[in-house]
Write a structure and sequence with these properties.
By secondary structure, the chain is of the alpha+beta class. It is about 25% helix and about 25% strand. It contains 15 helices and 35 strands. The strands form seven sheets. Strands 10, 11, 16, 17, 18, 19, 20, 21, 22, 23 and 24 form an eleven-stranded mixed sheet that branches. Strand 26 and strand 27 form a beta hairpin. Helix 9 runs parallel beside helix 11. The protein is globular and about 80 Å long. The N and C termini lie far apart (about 60 Å).
Length: about 800
């Protein structure tokens, strides 16, 4: 196992050599390799296939670069060592292939190149787009052509794996559970297999074709995957917290133990925090036994309620399940699912038949996108430490080969979530590769009327028009936080079609007409299906305000990269909308915005956006925010009558934080963290989707306090695109000391604040070449690259 691990790490460490392959691809006009499959197996239904090929090498090569892809997914092996998994998800017009240098795993003489490929058919995750089952491997250079997939490669259908539809309540869109029958499973397939009759010649499906080829022979239009390999590292497997039928010590990692014939055992393992990855259970003996592994974010009581996530008394587990059926071999076999799982609690239930069995142990391979935490936030308020850590963990677990809303339930890349996730990636990790993937994916998802789909990639079309507006904001965010004018310019045709859809729906009075599809805003308590109210002819102030935000961003993008006349059109439309909202939705009685001209319903959402976008005049902004928060957040008192009002949930409080700062109330920000402190008290180790009772315990859009702490409390933000200039304006509230750092394209911005008897001492360190300004108490001071200390009265 140590040799296997060392070999895998070697391959991952050398993945950077993929750049060599990109040059080779650029020199090729056509790929010689063929997509292959197995004769007589399902084309679009569930199937697991093993492919193999033997190549002879006169000497061990220093480098051997290959491109690999599959539909749906693959694990690629070289001489029995798992070299990589893939491909990253895309659509048929942008089908990813992975590039690896497998030279370190090759040897002189015979080499076995094998792959396990699976297609989950109707059980597939909704994020999985597909044409049909297939596998492709193409050598990047002449020497590597011997590895090409074609009719010389052999294939075997795996009979030991079946799909198991999860038995969970609520909307589930991720991968299915698996039933792996060890008595039927081909344990030797990854090593090259035997010479049995189960192996046959593969059938070809057409040449591998790059996207730019005009005569592509199949539906997979190949593009190089620009993402790095997902992180894969062995991690502690948690501690045993409850057992039945076996004397295993609790409070410690699960040891190996033996089971007699006709016995039942249950072991509950608590990982201590939510995780994503591959559990591996080592088993020997036990023919006829059944092992069930159940994964859950939290345990539930008899009423199905989660309560405190740390408590296990009188609670049970319900969740996604894998079933392992030992084949009875004396040799130890390692059972693990093909797809990664999500869990804090993992329960192992075993029932043996007539043959004793031994469980040798449990281990875990953690897997997620390989973000590295570069940002930091340390203050004299220690209660902020878990808020920072939980937010980062949530962002990490909800990012793999795409961003995703929830790692357990859906694994879908939604615009509303992804906009927030991308900002975390830019500022905490200084990594924009997954953000680029997401922006391009949403651009690629646009339907014929111009809107983006709400989530993508997705095999099931879903339209949330308001998310198209947020996508325009996401493009603008990228421009400000990462720069790269060429990339941003490439998105402008898409932002135009999205905004044009809304321009066509803008009423003569400036408000938006009735919005079709699913105009989701937030999971407000009385927002039906998350939709803010509309009158019979539309007129939603909340949706029109989101339109105003997108129009303003669109105008800035057009002035920088496109058409100044179109920018003026956007600005005029935004002005018309702004005037209409104030004229028709402002309630003189209550001094707040209503959700529609009928003024029968009120929400925090309309007033949050009204303040942030200056629809509500500056002199009234603090009063409005204080009113709307008086019934939802401690520390905010209001004068006068406040109407019944829908409160913003965790997601929309991202925009609340921006409104608070915009209104000059940034020092009040830390008062908004009450809901986060409540979740910490409930034992959550990732942020939930919405207040209790919540379906997902890990939801990406709830992680925005990490951005808020950097942007608002520490006060670091771009003053111009790509952080060419920086603006720092801290809002420390009651904090007396703060040390923090944010990643920007040029390096790290590091600031240290300390309150003194004379005021504030600020030590600022900027990357060379970055200048800007520091704002404090209404005064501005110039900043330059390097270190500087400011004494601020």
């Amino acid at each position: 196992m140590k040799l296997w691990t060392r070999a895998v790490r070697t391959v991952w460490a050398l993945a950077i050599l993929a750049a060599m392959a990109a040059i080779a691809v650029g020199q090729e006009k056509h790929w010689s390799a063929q997509w292959i499959a197995a004769a007589g197996t399902a084309e679009k239904d569930a199937a697991v296939l093993h492919f193999r090929k033997t190549i002879e090498l006169a000497a061990k090569p220093e480098h051997f670069v290959v491109h690999v892809s599959a539909d749906n997914q693959f694990i690629f092996y070289v001489n029995g060592a798992a070299a990589r998994r893939g491909p990253s998800r895309g659509d048929l017009a942008h089908w990813r292939y992975e590039t690896y240098d497998i030279g370190p795993l090759l040897r002189a003489g015979k080499n076995f190149l094998t792959a396990t490929v699976w297609h989950f058919g109707t059980h597939a995750a909704i994020a999985q787009i597909s044409d049909r089952t297939g596998f492709l491997l193409h050598g990047a250079g002449e020497a590597e052509r011997a590895a090409d997939t074609n009719a010389t490669r052999e294939v075997e259908e795996e009979k030991g794996i079946e799909m198991v539809r999860p038995k969970v309540d609520g909307y589930y869109a991720a991968e299915p559970g698996l039933r792996i029958d060890g008595g039927k499973f081909d344990w030797n397939a990854k090593d090259g297999g035997g010479s049995g009759s189960t192996w046959t010649k593969a059938v070809t499906l057409g040449r591998g074709a790059l996207r730019e080829e005009r005569d592509a022979p199949n539906n997979w239009q190949l593009v190089s995957d620009r993402l790095p390999a997902m992180e894969m590292r062995e991690a502690p497997a948690g501690r045993v917290v409850r057992t039945e039928g076996v004397a295993v010590k609790t409070g410690a990692p699960m040891p190996g133990f033996a089971l007699g014939a006709r016995s039942k055992v249950s072991v509950l393992v608590d990982n201590g925090e939510l995780t994503t990855g591959y559990p591996v259970l080592a088993v020997s003996g036990g023919r006829g036994a059944k092992i069930r592994m159940t994964y859950a974010e939290a345990l539930v009581d008899a009423k199905g309620q989660k309560g405190n996530r740390d408590e296990i008394a009188k609670k049970h587990i319900v969740g996604v399940e894998d079933e392992f059926l030992p084949g009875g071999e004396t040799a130890t076999r390692e059972f693990s699912p093909l797809s990664w799982r999500t869990w804090r609690y993992l329960q192992i239930d075993v029932e043996t038949a007539d043959v004793p069995m031994k469980i040798a142990g449990l281990k875990t391979w953690f897997s997620a996108y390989p973000f590295v935490e570069k940002a930091y936030f340390h203050s004299d308020d220690k209660s902020l430490e878990p808020i920072w850590k939980i937010g980062w963990r949530t962002a990490r677990l909800d990012a793999h080969d795409t961003y995703m809303d929830t790692a357990y339930w859906e694994r879908l890349q939604y615009i509303g979530d992804t906009r927030i996730q991308a900002l975390i990636s830019y500022t905490m990790a200084g990594d924009d590769r997954l953000g680029r993937q997401a922006i391009e994916a949403f651009n690629d998802s646009r339907v014929t009327d111009g809107l983006t789909q709400s989530r993508y990639p997705s095999s099931l079309t879903q339209m949330i028009p308001t998310f198209s507006l947020l996508w325009v904001g996401m493009v603008h965010d990228f421009w400000m936080y990462r720069g790269d004018a060429e990339f941003v310019r490439g998105q402008i045709p898409g932002t135009r079609t999205a905004l044009d859809w809304f321009l066509r729906g803008q009423r003569a009075d400036g408000l938006l007409g009735k919005i079709s599809w699913w105009p989701f805003v937030d999971w407000g308590a009385d927002f039906e299906a998350g939709e803010s109210p509309q009158d019979a002819d539309g007129g939603s102030s909340v949706m029109t305000l989101q339109f105003v935000e997108a129009l303003r961003y669109g105008a800035e993008l057009e002035r920088a990269f496109g058409d100044a006349n179109l920018a003026k059109t956007y600005e005029n439309a935004a002005d018309d909308a702004t005037h209409a909202i104030w004229k028709r939705c402002w309630s003189e009685k209550y001094g707040v915005l209503a959700d529609t001209p009928a003024q029968k319903h009120f929400s925090q959402h309309a007033n949050i956006l009204g303040v942030w976008l200056d629809v509500i005049p500056t002199p009234q902004q603090k009063e409005v925010l204080t009113k709307i928060l008086s019934k939802s957040d401690a520390g905010f008192g209001a004068a006068g009558e406040v109407p019944a009002m829908t409160a913003a949930t965790y997601y929309f409080r991202f925009y609340l934080a921006r409104a608070i700062e915009h209104a000059g109330m940034g020092d009040e920000y830390l008062k908004l963290l009450g809901p986060r402190r409540q979740m910490v008290g409930l034992g959550l180790t990732t942020w939930a989707e919405s207040p209790e009772p919540t379906r997902p315990d890990s939801h990406a859009w709830s992680s925005h306090p990490n951005i808020d702490l950097l942007q608002i409390v520490a006060g670091v933000r771009p003053k111009s695109a790509g952080f060419r200039e920086i603006a720092i304006e801290p809002h420390l509230g009651e904090l007396k000391e703060l040390k923090t750092g944010m990643a920007i394209p040029q390096g790290m911005v590091e600031v240290e604040y300390k309150r003194t008897e004379k005021g504030l001492e600020a030590h600022v360190k900027l990357p060379e070449g970055v200048s800007g300004q520091f704002l404090w108490s209404g005064k501005t001071r110039a900043l330059r690259g390097g270190e500087q200390t400011l004494a601020l009265p």
